[in-house]
Structures are given as C-alpha cells and as structure tokens.
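Q: What structure does this chain adopt?
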Amino acid sequence: MAKRVTQELLASIELVVSDVDGVWTDGRLTIGDDGREFKTFHVRDGHAVAMGRESGIGFAILSGRTSKAVDRRARELKIGFVVQGSRDKGIDFLQLCSDAGVSAEKTAMIGDDLPDLSAFYHAGLSVAPADAATEVLDAADVTLAVRGGEGVIREFVEKLLEARGDLTRRGSLRRKK
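A:
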C-alpha cells in the first residue's frame, strides 16, 4: 500500500537510489553489430544530480544489468555508489544505504520493473516513471508524469528540492545565505 506522500516526507530524503534501464533511459537496448551496447541518457537528469548534490542529496545506481556506459555516466556525474549485475535489489539496496551512511527510511528508490519491487519494500519512498510496469505503479508511493529516459531523475529531484524550499519559482537552485 502506498504511503501518504507529504512535503515533510519528500524533504526528509537524503539519498536517491535508482535503476537505470527504464529510469535513466527509455528501457530500450541498442546493440551494434560488433556487440557494443549503447544507452541514451537525458542531459537534464545529469543537471538534476548536480542540483541535488548541492542541496545535500546523495545518489546511487542499482541495476540488474552491467554496462560500461553506466560506469561512464556515473563517473561523469560523480555518483560513487554503483551496483550493477544485482540479483537481489532488496539486499543490494540495503547495502547501498549502509555504504552511503543513510537509513533506508531516508532513501528513495526509483524503479520501473518487477526486480525493483524488492527494493521498494525497504525504501522510505518508492518512485516510478509514468510507463513503469503495472505492478510497480501499484506499489509506488510517487508516480511521475514523465516516462523512462525523459527526465525521471530531474522531475523527482525537483520535487525534493521544492519540498526543502531549495527551488526558486524559475526552477533554479535557491542559493543559501
């Protein structure tokens, strides 16, 4: 059963853990003739990570697949907590929280498919893109307006920043005095 999402709950989130395929990307896999895999990331999600970090929010990636593109994007965005090839996202979610020094109750999990549900059950807040699997949409505390690969991280981070009072009316980060 979904939690009642309040501004206080949103403001309490200190760590955002997210799946990749279907969240950061549209979920499609592009594989070239040479076997190389390609992923397309939305630039606004990268800016959202920078804004969130400036406001004190941490980020982690939790993926069932393994991809060099994810490693590269995580390095570019300075996301230090990355688990790829996860076989049990619930266990790996709890380990990421421990590694980051943040309780599961103050952590949001963004996922789009059935393997993400085991992490949803531990998260303080579960979040799904608009095109997530039906079971994930039913379990999510927050359903976003955008589909996977269309700025999921950006939309959610803006909700967190707004709840913290860190977002201006023009959508930029409010500078602390």
